[in-house]
Write a structure and sequence with these properties.
single chain; 260 residues; alpha/beta; Metallo-beta-lactamase, Chain A; seven-stranded mixed sheet; binds zinc ion
């Protein structure tokens, strides 16, 4: 079984707890150390229970809690090599770094984790495939497009944590500077509701138990719009996958994935 609980998910902060087989992981530390500790407590865990802290990329909304979090407890950080150079500058000296590479699986406790490249205006950004006890969870956030090979790697996943960042119309009518709009919708920006649906169409299968829509923009999207778009896609695919939006500033209770 894998269970996971996003502690926060938006451009203001991201962190997710993932557990399986007695191993506990944290993906990203983009909220304050206080909020991460509080979230872990709500999950029945503490920082010392974490077998690893994995990072997707260096943007502040994915990393800002690292400095203070690493001061009190030694963390085992897993990240790509160039991202590591940024993170070493933030983390306390006792932090242990392991470098990972897209396409090369790494074992942490009961998990086998395969990082894969995503397309974002960051250094070496990655998504992850988590596997534990025959259960698989895909984790994709902060990518401007779906990359070739993601569908193959993530085919048959039991759960998906997937960015659904913006609604096209809301983005264009947001009043944001054109340069920012172009950045968001570029290949190095974020996934739209439409792109998220398109990816789910590519990997859809009856065993897909849960989708959590993530990193929903607070100015250029609403949880309702993201949910409606994906629910329509799931209806067309005749799947009864459970669908939920990760709240921007609150913890989403555990989502459980079991072996089919
Ligand atoms: Zn982000
Ligand atoms: Zn980012």
């Amino acid at each position: 079984m894998i269970r996971f609980s996003p502690l926060a998910s938006s451009s203001k902060g991201n962190a997710t707890v993932i557990s399986g087989g007695g191993t506990h992981l944290l993906v990203d530390t983009g909220i304050s150390a206080t909020r991460i500790r509080k979230g872990l407590t709500e999950c029945g865990l503490s920082v010392r229970d974490l077998a690893g802290v994995l990072f997707t990329h260096e943007h502040t909304d994915h990393t800002c809690g690292l400095g203070i979090l690493s001061k009190k407890d030694s963390l085992r950080v897993y990240c790509t090599r160039y991202l590591g150079q940024d993170l070493r500058g933030m983390a306390a000296p006792s932090t242990c770094f392991t470098y990972i590479e897209p396409g090369s699986p790494v074992k942490i406790g009961a998990f086998t984790i395969t990082p894969f490249a995503v397309s974002h205006d960051a250094t070496d950004p990655v998504g992850y495939l988590f596997e534990c006890e025959g259960v698989r969870l895909g984790y994709i956030t902060d990518t401007g497009r779906i990359m070739r090979g993601m569908d193959t790697l993530l085919s048959g996943v039991d759960g998906l944590y997937l960015e659904s960042n913006y609604d096209n119309d809301m983005l264009y009518n947001s009043g944001r500077p054109m340069a920012l709009i172009e950045r968001i919708e570029s290949n190095w920006g974020h996934l739209s509701n439409e792109q998220a649906c398109e990816f789910v169409r590519q990997i859809a299968h009856p065993g897909l138990q849960h989708i959590v829509l993530a990193h929903i923009s607070q100015d250029c999207n609403t949880p309702d719009k993201a949910h409606k778009a994906m629910q329509q896609a799931l209806n067309e695919l005749q799947l009864n996958t459970q669908l939920v939006c990760a709240p921007a500033a609150y913890r989403l209770p555990w989502i459980e994935l079991s072996r089919n």
